[in-house]
Amino acid sequence: MRSMVKVEKLRPLLKILASVWIVYNIFSLMVMPNVSSYFGRVTSKFVGPYANVVGLNVGWNFFSPDPAQPMYLKIVVNYPSQEDGGYREPLITSYPDPEEDAKVPGLTRKREWAAMRFMVMDPRRLTQVFGPWLCKKYPDAESIDMEQVVDVLPLLDNAVLNKEVNLLEMSQERRFAKASVRCGVAGDEEIL
After folding, report:
1. Sequence-ordered strand ranges (E) for the chain
2. For the chain, how are helix, strand and coil distributed in percent, rounded to 5?
3. What is the rounded (10 degree) CA torsion for 110, 101, 99, 104?
4. How is residue 88 annotated by DSSP?
5. Which of 185, 175, 115, 177 is CA-nearest to residue 143?
6. How far apart are CA 88 and CA 77, in angstroms?
7. What is the pTM (predicted TM-score) of this model?
8. CB atoms closer than 10 angstroms to residue 126
9. Mean pLDDT highest for which of 42-51, 63-72, 110-119, 179-188?
10. Cα–chain-centroid distance for residue 188?
């Protein structure tokens, strides 16, 4: 009879411990498969060791990926020397042109981004297709230099830790596909 009284006194404590264990398991089930998310990285130090032992650390890829990195094509239009021997400054622009954002509807902007991404997938397209088009757009140009620029955004963890720093200052420019085209050279379009 005395042992029965001890069990009755322990029953609420056992219920609480069982409830905490069940909640911890459910929390582990929700966090560990999504450990690549910001919340998962922050809480994994509390759940990770247990989840690794029990096998709850398999990823679901549940959350959406990070946003796409902003990219553009930097274009330098080089002009020939002037007849009087003077030097004409090269025109530096980009494609898509950020100054045209306000003037151009969103659907057209998406097409320009898709065209730019298609062009830089194979740098030969820059010299064979995009370069001659730019030469027609800038008829006075002697040559055109193109370079893909990607603005690498900081990870969310870094942005949260460095709240006082502007995100634009934390981003980094990376340069990839480069190409140069001489304008006015016969036979450029025959390669196509």
Report:
1. 71-78, 91-95, 143-152, 172-182
2. 50, 20, 30
3. 80
4. P
5. 185
6. 11
7. 0.55
8. 23
9. 42-51
10. 34
Task: Count CB neighbours of 75 within 10 A.
Answer: 21
pLDDT for 94:
79
The sign one gets for the Cα dihedral 172, 176, 182, 188 is: negative
pLDDT in tens, 119-175: 778 888 888 888 898 999 999 899 999 998 888 878 777 778 888 888 777 888 888
- Confidence label for 59 from pLDDT (cuts 50, 70 and 90): low
**Average of per-residue pLDDT values in the chain:** 79
DSSP assignment of 18-30: HHHHHHHHHHHHH
- Number of residues assigned to the chain: 192
Please report, for residues 17, 32, 42, 87, the alpha-carbon distance to residue 56 in angstroms, rounded to integers and kept in the order given.
20, 6, 17, 67
Candidates 131, 129, 149; CA nearest to 141 is: 131
Query: For the packed helices 38-54 and 2-31, what is the interaxial angle rounded to 10 degrees?
Result: 130
Which pair of structure tokens corresponds to residue 172? 């980094």
Least confident of 2-6, 30-34, 49-53, 80-84: 2-6
Strand ranges across the sheet with 143-152: 91-95, 71-78, 143-152, 172-182
